[in-house]
Amino acid sequence: MVGYPVEGEILSRGTWTAGFALVAEKFQAGRIFLGGDAVHLFTPAGGLGYNTAVDDAVNLGWKLASVVKGNAPSFLLDTYELERRPVAVRNTGFARAFAESIGNYVPKPDIEADSDLGSDLRREAGAYLEAHGRSEFNIPGVTFGARYDHSPIILAEGEGQAPDLPEVYVPNAAPGGRAPHVWLNCQTSLFDRFGFEWTLLRLRPSSSPGTEFVTAARMAGMDLTVVDIKEDQLRAIYREPLVLIRPDQVIAWRGDGDGDAVQIIETVLGHIPAKR
């Protein structure tokens, strides 16, 4: 591996098996909540343990804050496990597949031979390992594609979702997934405009003002930032003129009117479960 003959002394040798994919049965017991490595054990392949742990913290953090401030019932905390455990199972599965891709690879005999056959086998092995490297680290689908369609605080639309592939991420503004990112100009991201807590994205403020959401949010104690953007690109991606985005940048609801604003706000805060 050094690329040049070197003298070395082996002091010890041991074996290590990659491919662990363990997820705890419970993420919560009463007032005790667990996250990160305490509830999911990853093989290091793909570096997904850190990503998943951060998402755990963000998901639980805004929910704890809402309950502590008295804006949401304790049921909101129950949705932490409901949302995050399936993602942990998904992500550990991806990581295990990456580990098996490299762990189960067996070099062919004569790969080190100083011959034309050895040269061909080395090129073949290099091509395989290069493809593995791309598949393990070029994973926008894993990073951005997790969804909470099943969550009782998401007003899901029941649309068929694209296949969940590690290397493919297709921006989708249907409730339950990450809000699609758009550059508004060379220096400003759409995410820069979001509020620290909740955001109401208005893409046609003149025809869909969403004033009932502002009133309902104020009554519920919800910190709601209203963001007005008139961009054809956003309208094509988000499809609806009103989009309600959670503190973790997950879309909770979208639509073209605010007649049910009170019920929607109560749903996303956990006061009432979403109808399926």
UniProtKB/TrEMBL annotation:
FAD-binding domain span:
8-92
Would you say which domain of life the source belongs to? Bacteria
A Pfam match is Rng_hyd_C
- Provide this UniProt record's keywords sorted from A to Z: FAD, Flavoprotein, Monooxygenase, Oxidoreductase
Q: Which cofactor does it need?
A: FAD
Q: Name one GO molecular function term.
A: monooxygenase activity
InterPro entries the record matches: FAD-bd, FAD/NAD-bd_sf, RIFMO-like
Q: Supply the PANTHER family for this chain.
A: BINDING MONOOXYGENASE, PUTATIVE (JCVI)-RELATED (PTHR43004:SF19), TRK SYSTEM POTASSIUM UPTAKE PROTEIN (PTHR43004)
Question: Any idea what this protein is called?
Answer: FAD-dependent monooxygenase
Give the organism, scientific name: Rhizobium bangladeshense
